[in-house]
Amino acid sequence: MIDRQPVETLIIDPNSEDVRLLLDALEDETNANTVSTAASGAEALEFVRQCDSDPDRSRPNLVVLDIDLPEMDWRTLLEKFDADPGWTGVPVVVFTAVDERKSIAQSYANHANAYVRKPDDRDRFVDVVRTLGKFWFDVAWVPPRDEPNDKR
Is residue 17 packed enough to be buried (19+ CB in 10 Å), middle (13-18) or exposed (0-12)? Predict the structure, then answer.
């Protein structure tokens, strides 16, 4: 039986208030797990490049993505992730205030694993984030970082 590894999460969201709420809501979950943030697609790609060049840093094995990004279209970012073998199997949760059918369909077409609407109400927002945290940190198993293509 394999041991459960900590989850290295990358939150990509330009809204600093939403990021703060996300981090606050995940506080109990981040004791054993690491959460990093990026405010744009370009910043997220730079973060990944730094992980690749520094053996002491791990690439994220879970991404939470808002699709309302500056500098780079979110679909382009997902395409870059999809083209990089290091992202094979890494779950992407789209967590956004956008509720257009086209965006939902495009998210799944670009291999997102879930599309979750950000609630407008602060308490409901926190509840949704805690539910996501429980699922991804306690229930689901994300791909191991040391063997990204392990088929066992």
Answer: exposed
In-domain check, residue 149: no
Q: From residue 76, how far is each of 41, 72, 79, 125 by CA, in Å?
A: 9, 7, 5, 27
Range of the domain at 73: 8-139
* Total of domains in the chain: 1
Query: Residue 40, class by beta-carbon neighbours within 10 Å (0-12 exposed, 13-18 middle, 19+ buried)?
Result: middle
**CATH code, domain with 117:** 3.40.50.2300
pLDDT digits (tens, 9 = 90+) for 62-109: 999 999 999 899 999 999 988 888 887 899 999 999 999 999 999 999
CA distances from 84 to 90, 103, 112, 122 (A): 11, 23, 15, 36
